[in-house]
UniProtKB/TrEMBL annotation:
Bacterial bifunctional deaminase-reductase C-terminal domain sequence ranges: 6-179
Alphabetized Gene3D superfamilies for the sequence: Dihydrofolate Reductase, subunit A
SUPFAM superfamilies per record: Dihydrofolate reductase-like
Protein name: Dihydrofolate reductase family protein
Organism: Tomitella cavernea
Domain of life according to the entry: Bacteria
Length: 187
């Protein structure tokens, strides 16, 4: 049986994208990228929305050649090995870039729990919209939050409004560039 996790890179004021939809400010430096690489090594399944899947499709076709940075090649290898559940009512199978991906028009909390029970490692929900219902239901075991020292003033929130959860700090690190990483576990 796996665990259910949620990872997000957020502004200090809690947004993953600003009010214009821009998230370029979340781009990791080498040290933060290495932390993401370490985190994703334990992920066996990703549950993500169509837009996030299309964005991450970059890693499905990333060149595995000596011309590419070693950390990026390793991330791409991990990404390609992960099973993916793309939650979308508009995506079509011919738009999938991974043989390990399948489309689900919706994933209920019951189905999400089945995915976690069948997983051999961590199941990660990627994207705040896709994760919102599981967060509200208190199903997330681990929260991986990378906080960028920036205030964006509005946009797409990392966590849904109205949620109250009691979490405990399970790990914390501050990177030279000012990004802080905190891992929280459900009590």
């Amino acid at each position: 049986m796996g665990t259910l996790s949620y990872a997000a890179t957020v502004s200090i004021d809690g947004y993953v994208a600003d009010s214009d939809g821009d998230f370029q400010w979340t781009a990791p430096d080498d040290a933060v990228f290495a932390a993401h690489l370490e985190r994703i090594a334990g992920v066996s399944t990703e549950v993500l929305g169509r837009r996030t899947y299309e964005l991450m499709g970059f890693w499905d076709t990333y060149p595995d050649s000596a011309d590419s940075p070693a950390a990026e090649r390793e991330f791409a290898r991990h990404w390609r090995a992960i099973d993916k559940v793309v939650v979308s009512s508009t995506m079509t199978p011919e738009r999938l870039t991974s043989e390990r991906a399948r489309i689900a028009s919706a994933v209920s909390l019951v189905e999400l729990q089945r995915i976690v029970e069948r997983a051999e490692g961590a199941v990660e929900i990627f994207g705040p919209t896709t994760a919102a219902e599981a967060i509200r239901a208190g199903l997330i075991d681990d929260y991986h939050l990378f906080v960028v020292p920036r205030i964006v003033g509005g946009g797409l929130r990392a966590l849904p409004d109205g949620v109250r959860l009691d979490l405990r700090l399970a790990g914390h690190r501050v990177f030279d560039g000012g990004v802080s990483y905190s891992r929280y576990r459900r009590r």
